[in-house]
Design a protein that fits this description.
Layout: E1 2-8, E2 11-16, E3 24-29, H1 30-63, H2 66-100, E4 142-152, E5 155-164, E6 172-182, E7 185-189, E8 209-213, E9 216-223, E10 234-240, E11 246-252, E12 255-256
Length: 292
């Protein structure tokens, strides 16, 4: 049996009784008890932090496992091959349609040749099947004004204006997607348009850039730091409604940017006439002639 008594503010007296014999007493300083509590708390904290760091670094090392890295690289390679197959399929579809079209006599209008599928874009196989066929542009409440695609060094800039022309005070809402394609490339604006994780189609209209126009809206897309201008041959501007139906498809051919600098004209120097020599000054009155 033991009994604890407080003999002073800084010490604790402990009485120990054993077999009803005389008690034994000893005093324990409060500082010792406080230090022991702090040591136990610090040890518990250090143990918890160590366990947390051990688990964290374990998962980090597991993610950095070479076999996992190889697996991720293989998945990326498979996605690239799938994307290339879809792109080749789209090119083959456009080539077959172009072959069946009648020859074009005027080569200056090659971009307006009937080489696009029914929905108005060469990338029809990349779009969902329910996008439909775009209606006659003259029946739309808006129009695409001044679309152009120009090269500036290695940057491809696409500009266009959406103008609401129906005078009913309403507006047009929908999604915009810009595709820039070439023999071995397919670029999209905005980012996230391609369904790389699988889906009904490679391009999802619902991921396009939202727009709402009641009068006038300017559109712009830039593809920067391309390796070569020959990488991109065609640009398609696709406009969908909120339900994902294709309303308008405009095809462009990138053109080099026209230089705005003018040839400096020759500047004619004005004819300068040498000043006539001033006549000698006459001697002042009252001044003697030195020769006299």
């Amino acid at each position: 049996m033991s009994n604890v008594q407080s003999s002073s503010p800084d010490q604790v007296t402990v009485l120990v009784f054993k077999d009803n014999l005389s008690s034994r007493t000893f005093q324990v300083p409060l500082k010792f008890i406080s230090g022991l509590g702090l040591a136990l708390g610090a040890g518990t904290l250090i143990t918890g932090v160590s366990l947390f760091l051990a688990v964290k670094y374990y998962y980090t090392a597991r993610k950095a496992d070479p076999s996992r890295v190889d697996s991720l690289q293989q998945e990326i390679q498979e996605l690239k091959l799938s994307n290339q197959e879809l792109h080749n399929k789209a090119l083959n579809t456009g080539t077959a349609t172009t072959t069946s079209a009648p020859p074009i006599q005027n080569t200056t209008h090659t971009e307006s040749a009937p080489s696009t599928p029914a929905n108005g874009t060469a990338h029809a196989s990349l779009l969902p099947a329910n996008v439909g066929t775009p209606p006659d542009p003259n029946t739309l409440p808006f129009k695409l004004d001044q679309p152009r695609a120009t090269w500036q060094n290695k940057n491809l800039q696409i500009h266009f204006n959406i103008q609401y022309v129906k005078g009913d005070g309403g507006n047009q809402q929908g999604k915009i997607i810009v595709l820039a394609s070439g023999p071995e490339a397919l670029l999209t604006y905005p980012a996230g348009v391609l369904n790389l994780n699988g889906g009904e189609s490679l391009i999802g209209p619902q991921n396009g850039e939202y727009f709402s126009v009641s009068r006038f809206r300017e559109g712009r897309a830039v593809f920067e730091n391309l390796s070569s201008q020959s990488l991109i041959k065609n640009v398609d501007i696709l406009i969908f409604d909120q339900a994902g139906k294709l309303l308008l498809a405009e095809k462009l051919t990138p053109q080099p940017m026209k230089s705005s600098s003018k040839t400096p004209s020759k500047t004619t120097q004005p004819n300068t006439v040498a000043p006539e020599p001033a006549p000698p000054a006459e001697p002042a009155s009252g001044q003697n002639d030195p020769g006299t």
